[in-house]
Amino acid sequence: MSNKSTPTERRIILKNADDPNYSNKISCYLREGGYAMLKKSFKMKPEEIGAEVLKSGVRGRGGAGFPAGMKWKFLDRKSGKPIYLICNADESEPGTFKDRQIIHKDPHQLIEGMMIAAYAIQAKQAFIYIRAEFFEGARILESAIDEAKAKGFCGDKILGSDFSCDLVVHRGAGAYICGEETGLIESLEGKRPNPRIKPPYFPAVLGLYQCPTIVNNVETLCNVKHIMEIGGDEFAKIGKPNNTGTRIWCVSGHVKKPGYYEFECGALTMGEMIYDVCGGLLPGRSLQAVIPGGSSSKILRADERFSGKLKDGTDFDWGVEDIPLDFDGPMAAGTMSGSGGIIVMDDTVDMVEAMANINAFYAHESCGQCTPCREGSLWMRKITQRMCDGGAREEDADLLLSVANQIEGRTICAFGEAAAWPTQSFIAKFRDRFEDKVKNPERKKSSLQLI
Amino acid sequence: MISKKNSKVVPIVLDGKEVEVPEGMNLVDAAALHGKEIPHYCYHPQLSVAGNCRMCLIEMGTPMRNRETGEAILDDDGSPRIGWVPKPVIGCATNVSPGMHVKTESEKVLGCREGVMEFLLVNHPLDCPICDQAGECRLQEFATDYGRGYSRFVERKNVKPKRTRLGPRVTLDDERCILCSRCIRFCQEVPKDDVLGFVDRGSFSTLTCFPGRELDNNYSLNTVDLCPVGALTSSDFRFKMRVWFLKDADSICPESSAGCNTTVSSREGELYRITPRRNDLVNDSWMPDSGRELYKSVKSNNRILSSRIDQNPCTADEAIIESIRLLEGKKIGIVGSCKSSLEEQFLLNQISLKTNAVNFIRGHFEEDDGILLSADRTPNLRGALISGFTQNYPKDNLVSLSQALDQNQLDVLLVIDEDLEAAQVDIANLEGVPIVFIGTHTNSTSNRASVVLPSLTTFEKSGTFVNRSFYAQVFRQAVPGPAGVLPDLSLLSRLHNGLTEDEEISPDQNSVWKVMNNVSGSVLKEISLTDVRKDAVLLDSSKWSDLPFVESKALHFEPATKVEA
Ligand SMILES: Cc1cc2nc3c(=O)[nH]c(=O)nc-3n(C[C@H](O)[C@H](O)[C@H](O)COP(=O)(O)O)c2cc1C
Ligand code: SF4
Ligand code: SF4
Ligand code: FES
Q1: Chain B residues inside the 8 Å CB shell of A412
Q2: Domains of chain B by range and CATH?
Q3: Does B202 sit within 8 Å of A378, measured CB to CB?
Q4: Can you list the residues of chain A whose pLDDT is less than 50?
């Protein structure tokens, strides 16, 4: 759709990752100037680092997009209790595969970011909570930590200073809910990862072992290093106001070149991403839908239009292709950039089947603590499964929507929304497909087996 | 928590009405104080808050303040503007703050309840006709009060284990479990025996014991009580009786000096179960499993059912007349009981005073569990002190009685319930000493007694016990005693009136209390039976602060600090 030149990536986080002469060994990292920012930071006061991060405006890359500097400010420093830093490397949101690139290809960047962050918040113990399936990633991180410790970048008396911070890799056991920060904390404490009620258990006040705790995503923590490199003010100039820095977008689905791409926030639109960066759709196919930020974000229909007023007061009138890829763009279109997992669906996708698969995921991953999420997610799964098995009924679309509405906003953690939003948006935008199932109940020959 | 004495109250607006509630109280309790029910499953006032059932969702808002100045923002009409939280919040984890607005009956709130009720039922087996909980089930109650009344669920329900033995006394039906985690939290927090947990996830989550463990602690049956549904059932009570046929009586557990408040349930004179009754000063909502078994003693084989003279059956009248004949004008030794009620102990002591008898009493001591089974395994040792029956702290034997007999100081014994042999009384010393025995069950002493007068168990009479903290608490008759068996008070009053010239004492609780109230210097002086019937009454214990009470620190109990010699 665009006749401009292909937007170019701006790689900050993944700068070295795919360089054939670069490996995840500390020698490579040092060669590229690694750990210089740690040294620089240790000459500053911890508060000064926090102030830079706040100025940078960097927003969390784990899904919610909460400003990291602000989160650090909420940390309870008066209690006198130990402070913990946790890196959320649970990366489980379907459609998301960015943190794994960092962990596999440039683990020292994460370690440096974490040690700067630990110093800034004065945490003496830090953890990387990594999903069970990343066994190779865990191994890489462990050997990287050993290397960093041997060189005094981590562990006891970092850089010869009085500040020590141990760093431990903790492997999950294979559960999506361990990515939710309070579920993660419970899991790290050795318990079943039931997310905690907030209030009172805000991690910054009552986190790990009831102590003040900061949980940040892998990509967020890597950014800390780069903020220290150029300063918060300069960093804030990357991207757009309120959408600073770069983002790593993970594109999957029916495009010619799926993969991860790092761009300045707002540097390109969804259309440019799909057609220019990812080479467009497969021959003869047309775009049917896009899920912009991991499977829990609301789906967009290819022919939808979005209009309204942006935060800065300007009017917008977009098609899906026009949505700017940053934090606020997808939000304005009624969805979210979430974890940056863009899932592209062409016209071959049976929307009810896609819904059934998404529902299967959430029904399987609900921790089961709260009634609406536990029962609602499985019920939605059973309904969509039945619809795909030839048992669709007239009233199913309304029922699905009603079940989803009974989950949203009524649960302990945001998993409730994550499970409800797909259904709500699928029904809102593809109701015709759900109704069509009643008249044409047979599965297509090309249909794959459901999850 | 209601139990926390909170002097400060704060104003909140509950469904449009301004009310005052104790500061810091959660909204479920605060609303209840003003007659509004916020339905809840997982919340239990005596356990930590889990917030998982989502039944207590309500709407909440707080007065808005100017970010810079901190001043309240006012509406056009001058009233504070309320910032309503956009999502419903859970009442159980929301504590009141001044000026908070709460809606418990809005359309949104009712919608939330309908939703949660529907979700709770989609995988529920709906087997009320064969479920023990039916009739006292929160699922039934709230489905009726807050549910939609019809089902939209046409899928297959989940299948889970139906009859799991969790321990010797508790059976689990996982399909009925609503995963509220009350039982798990109870085990962690009260008996501190972390044995229960969930396995699997989502809607397939299943309650179970940790591998190799059992739910066998002495508090396991409390999980049955606090389970809001029919998932946890008492293996003893299972399938025995429909609860709506049961008649309940407020009682006090006689197992130990903890004085757990209980409900004793019966049908047509038959006892079926004992469950704890909430008292935030004494036992919260719990009681030991062992105390629940006690009703079985009512029907045990060694129950004494008829009066006897020289071991031959006779009428009660004959036995009483023979007792008076044996006791009259003699040097009497009276063996009282820490298991008797305060009224009985008092009356017994009146007999003693007026016949110049010598009093003996023993204590029954075992290990203290630090919760609700105290080292003193009698319900009313303190009653023996207050009634004046003894000034000394009872020993766990009756060696002093044995010595008195050895020195021929006593002609005849009046024994309440006690087994003298088991209390280290030398049998040789009992030769030629007639015994009048009043008790409920046979023992070596009743077997050698000249007169045996059967009496009633705690479940068959009313009275007062004074617990380890010196709370006077009444227990009420749950079932009638065996035919022809007189209440202890009647027996004692007949003996009293037969042995003394004094004014007669009528054998009812009220009359005895009137006499007790008149004793000079008594700690009961300002206290009436009516007070005690209303609520536990804390008695002045300062007179006895030097005695070597055996109880150790436990739930709602702090031993008096003694100066060690
Ligand atoms: C159901 C659920 C799953 C989540 N999974 C992840 C995850 O895999 N990785 C992650 O970084 N954040 C995840 N989050 C977000 C975290 O709770 C938390 O907000 C985030 O780690 C904070 O880091 P950030 O501020 O740097 O984004 C998840 C949240 C929810 C509700
Ligand atoms: S919303 Fe779902 S995942 Fe989150 S706590 Fe509740 S049941 Fe668990
Ligand atoms: S067994 Fe009963 S108390 Fe325990 S979690 Fe299930 S419903 Fe709750
Ligand atoms: S009672 Fe509040 S969430 Fe269960």
Answers
A1: 51-52
A2: 9-105 (3.10.20.740), 122-245 (3.30.70.20), 307-544 (3.40.50.740)
A3: yes
A4: 1-2
A445/B283: higher pLDDT: B283
Task: Give the CATH number of domain A351-439; options: 1.20.1440.230, 3.40.50.2300, 3.30.2350.10, 3.50.50.60.
Answer: 1.20.1440.230
Classify A203 in phi/psi space as left (phi over 0), alpha (psi -120 to 50) or beta.
alpha
Interface test with A, best of B56, B201, B207, B208 (most A CBs within 10 A): B201
Q: Count the alpha carbons within 13 Å of A143 in the hemisphere toward its beta carbon.
A: 13
Check B179 against A374: CB less than 8 A apart. Answer: yes
- Is the CB of B40 within 6 Å of ligand 4? yes
Over residues B142-166, mean pLDDT:
96
The DSSP-derived string for A316-366 is EEEEGGG-BSSSHHHHHTTS--TTSEEEEEETT--HHHHHHHHHHHHHHH-
Superfamily grouping for domain A26-237: NADH-ubiquinone oxidoreductase 51kDa subunit (3.40.50.11540)
Which residue of B55, B109, B142, B227 sits with most ligand 4 atoms within 8 Å of its CB, as the best mutation to test the pocket?
B55
> How wide is the angle at C-alpha B240 spanned by C-alphas B235 and B241, nearest 5°?
130
State phi, psi for A221 to the nearest 5 degrees: -70, -35
Confidence grade of residue B565 (pLDDT, cut at 50, 70, 90): very low
Contact criterion met (CB below 8 Å) for A260 and A347: no
- Cα A65 to ligand 1 centre (Å): 9
| Geometric angle at alpha carbon A299, from A294 and A303, rounded to 5° | 140
Q: Model confidence over A319-362: pLDDT tens digits?
A: 999 999 999 999 999 999 999 999 999 999 999 999 999 999 99
What average pLDDT does range B80-99 have in this prediction? 96
Site from A180, A206, A371 to mutate, B interface, most B CB atoms within 10 angstroms: A371
Topology adopted by domain A246-344: Ubiquitin-like (UB roll) (3.10.20)
ipTM above 0.90, yes or no: yes
Nearest residue of B to residue A191, measured between CA atoms: B197
Average pLDDT of every residue of chain B: 96
Q: pLDDT band at residue B1, thresholds of 50, 70 and 90?
A: very low
* pLDDT given at position B78: 87
For A371, the closest of B53, B111, B197 (CB atoms) is B53
Report whether residue B178 contacts ligand 3, using a CB cutoff of 6 Å: yes
**B52 vs A177, A402, A412: nearest CB:** A412
Which of the residues B52, B94, B97, B199 would you substitute to probe the A interface, choosing the one with the greatest number of A C-beta atoms within 10 Å?
B52
Start-to-end C-alpha separation, chain A: 34
Q: What is the mean pLDDT of residues B445-472?
A: 98
Tokens read off for A221? 């923590």
**Per residue in B363-414, pLDDT tens?**
999 999 999 999 999 999 999 999 999 999 999 999 999 999 999 999 999 9
Q: Where are the beta strands (DSSP E) in B434-503?
A: 435-439, 451-454, 463-466, 471-475
**Residues in chain A within 8 Å Cβ distance of B196:** none
* Spans of all domains in chain A: 26-237, 246-344, 351-439
Q: Which amino acid is at B249?
A: A
> Distance (Å, rounded) from C-alpha B241 to C-alpha A323?
66
> How many C-beta atoms lie closer than 10 Å to residue B395's C-beta?
16
Ligand 2 centroid to B108 CA: how many Å? Answer: 21
CB distance B114 to B107 below 8 Å: no
- Measured CA to CA, the distance from residue A268 to residue A8 in angstroms comes to 9
Distance in angstroms (rounded) separating the CA atoms of residues A261 and A264: 10
pLDDT tens by residue, B3-24: 445 579 999 999 999 999 999 9
